[in-house]
Amino acid sequence: MVINHASRKTFIKSIKSTLRNYTLDGIDLDWEFPMVHDSNVDKRERQHFSQLLREIRTEYIREKQNYLLTVAVAAPETIVDVAYDVDQINMYVDYVNIMTYDFHSFTKYTPFTGLNSPLYKRSTEITYMATLNIDYTVQMYLKKGLDRSKIVVGIPTYGHSFTLVNANNARVGSPASGFGALGEFVNYPDICKFIQKFKSEVTIVEDSDARVPYLYKNLEWVSFDTPQSVMEKAKFIKEHKLRGAMLYSLNADDFTGVCDLKQNDNLRFPLAESVKNVLKSEQHNKQILRLEN
Q: What are the transmembrane regions (predicted)?
């Protein structure tokens, strides 16, 4: 689609038609990721992506339309360095949804436990591992020229599970043999049900450095977020005067209220509500909360 001006023009025409026919606010480009996965790809793909952004913005201006143009981008610096011209993104888009999650999951290259979306690096992490957190990612994008008013921080409503090699070694970074029994991606209500079912057998650890929890029971190990940990991330957004938060995804939050053990108000969407309440406080009404489903 981006290979030449003619094909990009066809795509932009379809964007305009869709926005107009459905009375939408704009378009978000979630392209994962230019110049990363295919060694045979056109080496100008990164440049073509920047051209696409410029041409969409130019068409908005030409037609005097106030449509939004946003992008969802990678968090790891190793991807950012080859995939994006951050200065061009900053020039043409309204805001940038940074996918600051999936920092750690089980793969054959990373056969050990890790935190899905740590806010800060852990004290024992150095070199590359110390870059896999929200704070480093945000500072990196700022240094590359992205305006803080355009930075939207991604917050997950799901966790990652692992199967421990040794039940007696359950720390972050412990050897793992695969995904856990709960599956590669674990929705928040499923985590709540697991804790409720095995309450006396589950150990929950709050990592004071990363500001996120993890749990383990026998060989099952899960990194996840709670209302408390997502509030820490929302506070980070406010303190750094960023644009807002993007939750991925709404359907992985607790929309039935199973996590509310007190059953007082049967709180629905506790993660989304927690982020919203922090961002709304103290009249920070310019910050946004984007919900993915």
A: none
